[in-house]
Amino acid sequence: MSRAPATIAFLLIAASIAAQQATPPPPSQAPETPPPDERITAQTLRVPSNLVNIIATVVTRREKLVTDLDKAEFKVSEDGVDQKIAFFARETDLPLRIGLLLDTSNSIRERLEFEKDAAIEFLHNTLRRKKDQAFLMIFDNEPAVVQSYTDDAGTLTQAIQHQRAGGGTALYDAIIQASAKLADAPQPADRSAVRRVIVVITDGDDNLSTGARGAAIEAAERAGAAIYCISSSTSWVAPEEYTESKRRVERKYAKDESDLVLDEFASQTGGRAFFPYSVDDLGQSFQDIGEELRNQYSLAYVPPSRPVDGSYRKIRVDVTRKGLVVRARKGYYATAPEQSASPATKQNQ
Fold it and tell me: Which of 43, 128, 191, 339 is least enclosed by beta carbons within 10 angstroms?
């Protein structure tokens, strides 16, 4: 009986120790979780939101992709002033957010079936389930989203196959609306960066848009979207010069006003314009786009300390290696914070 008080005391002391161990440390001692935009993982880097991010494609003069450049070989300037590259990566695996814009106006009726087949093949070859997403927009008298974001190429295929041609052309309005949709694109679960792309198949004519061409380019630039244009024009193709035994793959040299519109959309946003010589070359154009999207460079720099007044800042990207051509967006609008499609991976700051 004399042992009972000692036993009870021992149990009370043990319980007190266990309670102290289970008690969480005071807030001042708890480990701090970094803000989402500064959290780094093995897969993803969260960069400060004030960085200007650029996706660049580098090719030879014969359009062969160059994928082995280093950070030291790039030069970036803003409004003519050289900038220090803070982040750099060879981006080959960014999730894609694609707006596929199909011209269904009466002017492309003869080529619509070929365009549909090429677009379907592109989506099946490019779209990765649970990673990339695309939506389908058609435009004739006005733009219309006929299939919203999905990672299922089969769903998009069905939507494409149901389209018919007729009506006028509201190309600029389509790009404006597609840019707005891309600006609000679904984000990956880990909030990593995405690559925003508009792929538009059209002859370049516009006769019904309420928005101007400049407004369309500005909308794409603000969304951080590159525009890839595939011309559906047949006005320059000479069928008698094309045979199955001797395919003509040369470029179009005498470009009309509509062609220059497609060139402008592409060059201003860091994309590319294609002018297939024949309907059979449409598929190659889509294949080139898919390959390019997987072999690009991601760069970022801290912009000069100037008023955030919404003004346009010109960007120029060059490489020191001779004989190469760089395609990148030409500028950005100074808003707070500057948004882009592609924060880069930190390297050698």
Answer: 43
Name the residue among 286, 263, 234 with its Cα closest to residue 107: 234
CA Rg, the chain, in Å? 26
Phi, psi of 132 (to 5 degrees): -95, 155
What is the token pair recorded at 324?
């190469």
CATH classification of the domain holding 161 = 3.40.50.410
Strands in 133-139's sheet, in edge-to-edge order, are 143-150, 133-139, 96-103, 195-202, 225-231, 272-274
- List phi, psi (to 5°) of 291: -65, -40
**DSSP state letters, 240-298:** GG--SSS---PPP-S--HHHHHHHHHHHHHT-EEE--SSGGGHHHHHHHHHHHHTSEEE
* Residue 225: strand, helix, or coil: strand
Give the structural domain span for 111. Answer: 96-235+248-293
pLDDT in tens, 247-282: 544 555 678 899 999 999 999 999 999 998 776 788
- The answer to whether the beta carbons of residues 149 and 134 sit under 8 Å apart is yes
215, two tokens: 């407004």
Q: What is the pLDDT of residues 103-158, one digit of tens each?
A: 999 988 888 998 899 999 999 999 999 999 999 999 999 999 999 999 999 999 99
Query: Which residues face 52 on adjacent strands?
Result: 301
Is residue 34 a part of any domain in this protein?
Answer: no
In a domain, 74, yes or no: yes
231: part of which helix (H) or strand (E)?
Answer: strand 225-231
Contacts of 233 (CB under 8 A, 6+ apart): 203, 204, 256, 258, 259, 275
Which of 127, 202, 140, 215 is closest to 170 using CA atoms?
Answer: 140
Report d(CA 90, CA 104) in Å as an integer: 36
Q: Which of 133, 220, 231 is nearest to 173 (CA)?
A: 220
Q: Give the distance from CA 159 to its chain's centroid.
A: 22
